[in-house]
Amino acid sequence: MWNCDWEYENQEILKQWYEEKISGAEPDLSVRKIICKGCGRVFYTQIASKRYCHYSLCGNRGYQKDLKQRRFEKRQNRVCKSCGKAFTPKRSDALYCCNACRQRAYRRSVTDKLRGQNGPLP
To answer: CA 51 to CA 41: how far, in whole Å?
Structure first.
């Protein structure tokens, strides 16, 4: 049995050890109280790097939540290239605030290309 499986099944023992540590009876115990980043419940662990109550149950879910949050924070307010209005993009590569501005910019680029042509094609 892996250490994380034992911890998942024996939370009552770890909780008791944590309370002994906090009360000062056993101050050298390495038990920590943590909120799981996957499911949000409180759990106790002795593993220093642990962030999830059970890796296979909450690990992927917590990682996806964390990744979504980091991507959201990474997106900055931008200025629309068509109308100049500030907006928060839904995608990391968005240049325009809405579909209307995107379409307007496309039509401008097409008409600019057509104006650049002098006479019929040979």
So the answer is: 11
CA distance 99 to 90: 12
- If one counts every other C-beta atom within 10 angstroms of the C-beta of residue 46, the result is 15
| Gap between the Cα atoms of 28 and 16, Å rounded | 14
- Map residue 53 onto helix, strand or coil: coil
Digit-coded pLDDT (tens) for 15-57:
999 998 888 888 888 888 989 888 888 989 888 888 888 777 8
How far are the Cα atoms of 3, 19, 38, 42, 90 from residue 50, in angstroms, in the given order? 11, 19, 12, 13, 32
pTM of the model: 0.52
Question: How many CB atoms are located within 10 Å of the residue 7 CB?
Answer: 20
Q: What is the pLDDT of residues 87-108, one digit of tens each?
A: 989 888 899 999 999 999 999 9
Cα-based distances in Å from 111 to 92, 104, 106, 119, 122: 28, 11, 9, 15, 20
